[in-house]
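Box S1 | Example of a co-folding query
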Amino acid sequence: MADHRLVVIGSGLAGLTTALEAARTATALEVLVLEKNPQVGGNSAKASSGINAVNPAGGDSPATYSDDTLQSGGGLSDSRLVERLVVRASAARASAFGASSEDALRFLEALGLDLSVVVQLGGHSVPRTHSNPSGPNVGFALVRAVETAVRQQPNVRIVTNAKVTSAAYSADGRLAVGYTLGLVATKPDSGSGGVGVAPEEVTVLCDGLVLATGGFAASREMLARYRPDVAGLPTTNGPWATGDGVALGGALGARLVQMDQVQVHPTGFVDPGDPDSGTKFLAPEKLRGCGALLLDDSGRRFVDELATRDVVTAAITAQPRHSAWLLLGAQGAARYGEGTLGFYSSKKLVTKVESAEAGAQHMGVDAAVLLQELAAHNTLADAAAAEAEAAAAAAARVGTVDQGGAHPPPRDVTGKRYFHGRVDVNAPVWVARVMPVVHYCMGGIQTRPDAAVLGQDGAPLHRVWAAGEVSGGLHGRNRLGGNSLAECAVFGRVAGRAAAAAIVSSTPVAAGQQVAL
Ligand code: FAD
Ligand code: SIN
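Box S1 (continued) | Returned holo structure for succinic acid
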């Protein structure tokens, strides 16, 4: 029987990473992961574009990544959190609290993941979003790898069908966590299994608590409260994203930050068979990172497809039908993965046609207009490719890496700077209708760079940490694609290590005391 217990609420990437890191840091610690769903993974398992990490091979640097993140955040990001996400700790600090996107990438690769595909998403000045070349969607692959490692830790238990309903300090400074164990669990803390047992109320005492419950982008009620203007939009989130951590943290005295900062992703697939559905499959940004174009109802481009999400969303919303066409050529499809496109085709979200002209017919636009638009785009894409090739050759000659960094000047009237391939008009193209969808909560529980949850007075709460989408302040007004999985992995590791160190340290951490990182 372990001497100390850490409870982690939520088993998405943030919760699982926290559990793994805490269990590895302190074997005398029992880590209990409580998950309300029958399966682990949350929205993390749905992630489809990738995870960000500084990508030196692509000309990236911590300063460039940091600048992109801060710029996208529009002045609202907490720069200390951005620094924690991006900047590699010194060797000594890394071994104590290893974090940063690069450390997180290595941590994940060490679990056997191949994250060698790197694309450039909107608002990034270099490619730095990593994903797997084959197999399931990147989020599922990440969750499966971390879950497998967690299950190998003898000091972790994952209990599914366990919905946490309360959290409070007990008289002795420990925490009492109340949860409802659902229908399919056999007995408290035994993990899911059996059937037919009535729900049971359980209270568990612990020495530390990590909130990793995700966001509230599936809660119409919370959206109506914090962002009524987007509450009517469809969502990409699973129904479990109901912001439970906000109430649980609130009960402990946590401070909330930027709750009105809700991200509307520009491209949810419109299912022709169910166009008004309140939940939509996401048309991943990786499609645009692989060269997909956005077209209006006359077949013309109208926005920089790789602008930040707020910009692309506003441009699509301004369209007469508040939606747009997305078109991907054969070169982009090969990069993106025809297998995944085939999945979307099987769901009738994407249609593959034999040529751009057939694409025009499918979209109901004038073929001459579309072909002219694609020719103009191809000219710019070819020029960009030639320049990139020349720059790479020059860098190779002098033995340096091209420091991408600074944004090049826009090449066209939409402001587009980065082009990722041409559209061969005589080869197959993939076409889909897309519209803006509620996607992500940038606000949430306020945390410090050591993942400690801050109370109303700005001091850290005693032994409470948070990681992942439940926390707020990192992304400001607009999250960059790929930065959520990065946040989960980085701050999950930070939270796990900080919690384990605080709990097993012989010197008890007093309320308000800072854990040195
Ligand atoms: P989650 O993964 O949502 O996990 C939270 C878990 O907590 C859930 O399993 C939930 O059931 C559980 N929980 C909640 N309340 C309770 C409770 N009361 N008791 C017990 N358990 C509870 N981001 C990227 O960076 N890159 C991408 O490519 C990307 N693609 C995405 C695609 C889709 C379709 C979606 C919806 C999001 C995507 N995101 C992406 C965003 C990213 O996936 C999420 O923001 C991130 O995974 C959140 O991780 P998390 O661990 O904080 O929360
Ligand atoms: C996407 O695939 O477009 C989502 C990526 C993200 O939310 O970071």
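Residues 184-190, 506-517 have pLDDT under 50 and may be disordered. DSSP finds 15 helices and 20 strands in the chain.
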